[in-house]
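Priority: medium. Attachment 1 of 2:
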């Protein structure tokens, strides 16, 4: 299984490969960040996320993530974490531009 990103843990965060951001890549990177947050929660820590910490100097840095002492993961977090190995990737192109969000009545 391939993904259009790599995540390299560093002392300052998780560094994705420097590929231009597009809709699919944004969704993929967001999913990777969620998986990282869940993995941190499984250790009983809380993830502290600073998204796009330095976009002008480090456009390749998606987020800085730090683990701080926390509580044990709850049932929903354990369930989501357990689903990570069952990930399926949609390889088909999107069929058009993103749709506008509907406003609630």
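Attachment 2 of 2:
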């Amino acid at each position: 299984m391939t993904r259009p990103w790599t995540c390299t843990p560093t002392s300052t965060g998780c560094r994705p490969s420097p590929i231009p951001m597009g809709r699919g890549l944004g969704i993929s990177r967001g999913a990777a960040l969620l998986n990282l947050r869940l993995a941190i929660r499984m250790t009983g820590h809380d993830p502290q996320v600073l998204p796009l910490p330095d976009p002008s100097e480090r456009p390749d840095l998606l987020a800085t993530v730090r683990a701080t002492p926390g509580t044990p993961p709850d049932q929903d977090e354990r369930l989501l974490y357990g689903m990570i190995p069952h990930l399926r990737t949609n390889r088909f192109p999107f069929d058009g531009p993103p749709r506008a969000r509907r406003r609630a009545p």
